[in-house]
Amino acid sequence: MSEAVETARLMDAVYRHQRHVYDLTRKYYLLGRDHLIRELLPPSGGDVLELGCGTGRNLIAAAKIYPDANFYGLDISAQMLETAERNIARAGLGNRIRLIEGDAANPAATDALGVASFDRVFYSYTLSMIPVWREALSAGASRLNTGGRILVVDFGQQSGLPAWFGKILFRWLKSFHVTPRADLREELELVAAKSACRLEFRSLYRGYSDYAELLKR
């Protein structure tokens, strides 16, 4: 069995039931998602791709803020995409958001969308869930237009918060197969060097979240 198939089965199993209450529960601790959406600022007519779109929550919020952009979402979980399709239809945005099932680490996974490259590619609390997260970052960079940006928000290392809080959080996240990436900044620096990008990286909420942008020159 390939790693992508194994990951898809795992994500379907984890979220088969959680997907129905995912957005309601996650809003209290997936901090920085709305900050990322405010920073997207896609050009008029631009193409925006979310890798690991889950329930479609971020795509819906972004599509409402940026009515002149086109939005696309990829996820490896058929269960999550089923929920996303339903949420997008309910929001009346089916004509502006297109979804596709696939592996974020595969640069060819979005080919069927018919978009050669994207003006914005973003990852919102997904790199901590993707086993081959480094490959997923590289794949995103390969899909980026010149002048485009990659935006990332994910769990930080809790450096500015009490040690007990980080231990409890990391233990709890592990039960959902979530692993905050201690070397996220170093990997982003490597991607920036390989892809002719400029990196901006900072911590949010006393280290609770890490936020980064890569600008392709």
Automatic annotation (TrEMBL):
UniProt entry tagged with the keyword Transferase: yes
Keywords per UniProt: Methyltransferase, Transferase
CDD domains: AdoMet_MTases (cd02440)
Limits of the Methyltransferase domain: 48-148
Keyword Methyltransferase listed: yes
Family annotation (InterPro entries): Methyltransf_25, SAM-dependent_MTases_sf
Pfam families referenced in this protein's UniProt entry, alphabetically: Methyltransf_25
UniProt name for this protein: Demethylrebeccamycin-D-glucose O-methyltransferase
Organism (species): Roseibium album
